[in-house]
Amino acid sequence: MYDSNETSSQALASADPAVVRLVQITDCHILAGAQDCLKGMNTRASFEAVCQAAMADNARLDLILATGDLSQDASTASYQYLAQRFAELHLPLFWLPGNHDDGCTMREHLCGELIFAAKQVLIGNWLIVLLDSTIKGEAGGLVSADQIDFLEASLRSHPRRHALVCLHHQALATDSEWIDRLGLQQSQTLIDALKSHDNVRAVLWGHVHQQAHHRRDGIEWMSTPSTCIQFKPGSKTFALDDLPPGYRRIDLHANGSVDTVVERLVDFAFDFEDS
Ligand SMILES: [Fe+2]
After folding, report:
1. What is residue 71's DSSP assignment?
2. CA 105 to ligand 1 center in whole angstroms
């Protein structure tokens, strides 16, 4: 039984003590059938192309973060497929659920020797906290009081570690009305909690299928493209962007600084239905 209030922790050693190197993939929207498409895009094909690009220099990577909407239909087949593909990456991978996912099915099938539903990762000088912002049956999200308590307890327990906090829904609003209506309820509660601890360096999410990066209150706030379809920034109503699928590389330096870049697929032929 998936319990979003469970507080499992995982400790890892980074390959380089000076920096933790990771890749974030998000919003893979994998479907049960190998040929199934989302808005005209085969999400397995785009996901596999992103993984191939992201792993080009995987000897330098310490871990992967997968930040929700990993499945489109929450099917057992989609999670079994992801577990197989993730196992082939041979890196520790930590996931959290998105609004399209089913936490229980995920927990049952998205597992493996290096695949974790851990809520907290300790690596190098860093603490990585993974929050569950989903509300069962709803597209929008909420970081519940229990999750806020867990976050604050985790930050308090590791005051000397720099912290990266991850969730599915956008901690900061975009300038896109429709997706912000499906964003995080009571987001200010989360923002206030993050700002009240002086070891939070970065906050990371998916859900918005677009890239953004803000620096506010000494914290990096980042969203990342989907591994499949992209949403058009600034659009009041639902609209797709023609940018290719992507992912984010993040270097967490021992001194608390963060270097990051979004990479997108090149030479990936795709089409989509913008409706
Ligand atoms: Fe998504």
Report:
1. B
2. 18
CA of 216 to the centre of ligand 1 (A): 25
| Cα Rg, the chain, nearest whole Å | 17
Please determine, for residue 5, whether its predicted confidence score (pLDDT) is greater than 70: no
CA of 244 to the centre of ligand 1 (A): 15
Q: Please give the pLDDT value at position 77.
A: 98
Contacts of range 261-270, beta carbons closer than 8 Å, 24 or more positions apart: 262/211, 262/224, 262/225, 263/53, 263/54, 264/225, 265/46, 265/49, 265/50, 265/53, 268/46, 268/49, 268/244, 270/41, 270/46, 270/244, 270/245
pLDDT at residue number 17: 85
* Axis-axis angle for helices 145-157, 187-195 (nearest 10): 10
Asked whether the beta carbons of 202 and 133 are under 8 A apart, the reply is no
Q: How far is the CA of 28 from the centre of ligand 1 (A)?
A: 7
* pTM (global) more than 0.85: yes
pLDDT value at residue 7: 58
Pick 9-264's CATH classification: 3.30.70.3040, 3.60.21.10, 2.30.130.10, 3.40.50.720: 3.60.21.10
* 65-92 residue pLDDT tens: 999 999 999 999 999 999 999 999 999 9
